[in-house]
Amino acid sequence: MDLKVENAGAYKEEKLGSWGKSLPVPSVQEIVMNGNLQSIPERYIHENEESPIPVNLPDSDLEIPVIDFSLLAKGDEDELKKLDFALKEWGFFHMINHGIREEVLHKMKEAVSSFFELPLEEKKKYAKQENETQGYGQNFVLSEHQKLDWSDMLYLFTIPPENRKSKFWPLSLPSFKEAVDEYSIEMQKIAEELSANFSVLMGLDRNGLKRLQGELNQGIRMNYYPVCPRPDLVLGASPHSDATTFTLVQQDDDVTGLEIRHKGAWIPVKPMPNSFVVNVGDTTEIQSNGMYKSIEHKVMTNKEKPRKSIVTFLFPDDEQEIGPLESMINDSHRPRMYRNIKFGEYIRELFARKMEGKALIDFVKLQSK
């Protein structure tokens, strides 16, 4: 299957560029490469919440659940119950036995590494514009005084192909497009199976969510978190939840950075080779009427080694209306908690704010009587 890098028509281009604005910022990778940092630039210093492991949590609350994808795909009822627990109690889980060939994962990692190894002037050819979501740089930068994250990213819309913009694809890199194409197709297969299981858990048949919301769109964000001499002062990514249906993360095998909020504490998500970290997004929280909540998470940095991650976002089309499923509403036990909203309106509201935990979900919550 060949997914072309398209330049969409004027209407489509305008639509995809309308999620929100983000100001251009310096490359953190270049800041680090250009000399010894005697002090951290003021714009990157955050008032970090402490992240120690609390001693009062049992071991079972220090590791996210593990779900066997191959068993879900076979319709295993016990594994489906485990998924239900993971979604209700954590909103995050490791996914193993996903069936994607190691070669595909390796080629994607190599493609990401090759991009961030390019000289700055070459990477700048793919820099995102102020009013666009895709490209090289950072998103959610709304003012010249806003605190910045200690990271660089390349974000690309991948599926459907007409959402792509060729000017942001570094096609001069050998095998980059091939690696991303193959990876994105495999991610979409995983997404379809996960969506079918989410559908069953929310009281529908396997194709219920697909009938209601259509095929999920896909975007891939490739992150680079440089080393930092004072990791206690910076954040690789500020605390936030995802607006997505769900998100698939291929972590760095060697470097821990992702932390999630669980029972009032920040819990590090340790890398598990050949697995994906999956997390619930706001869209699923809304559709499940609060049964499966999106979870606040952040990324920490370190002194010793840079970290890379590959994040695949799955989300509805902009024109798709999202709201609680009728199967998840019960007037006496679980009344409707969220209003209906088009996904495009919700995501534009997200891009109009800096990342602030789960503040956005309040935008669609109904006031309790």
UniProtKB/TrEMBL annotation:
SUPFAM superfamilies per UniProt: Clavaminate synthase-like
InterPro entries named among the record's database cross-references: DIOX_N (IPR026992), IPNS-like_FE2OG_OXY (IPR044861), IPNS-like_sf (IPR027443), Oxoglu/Fe-dep_dioxygenase_dom (IPR005123), Plant_2OG-oxidoreductases (IPR050295)
Domain of life the protein comes from: Eukaryota
Lineage summary: Eukaryota, Viridiplantae, Streptophyta, Embryophyta, Tracheophyta
One term of GO molecular function: dioxygenase activity
Protein keywords: Dioxygenase, Iron, Metal-binding, Oxidoreductase
Record flagged with keyword Oxidoreductase: yes
Record carries keyword Oxidoreductase: yes
Residue ranges occupied by any Fe2OG dioxygenase domain in the UniProt entry: 216-316
Protein known as: Oxoglutarate/iron-dependent dioxygenase
Pfam families: 2OG-FeII_Oxy, DIOX_N
Similarity section: Belongs to the iron/ascorbate-dependent oxidoreductase family.
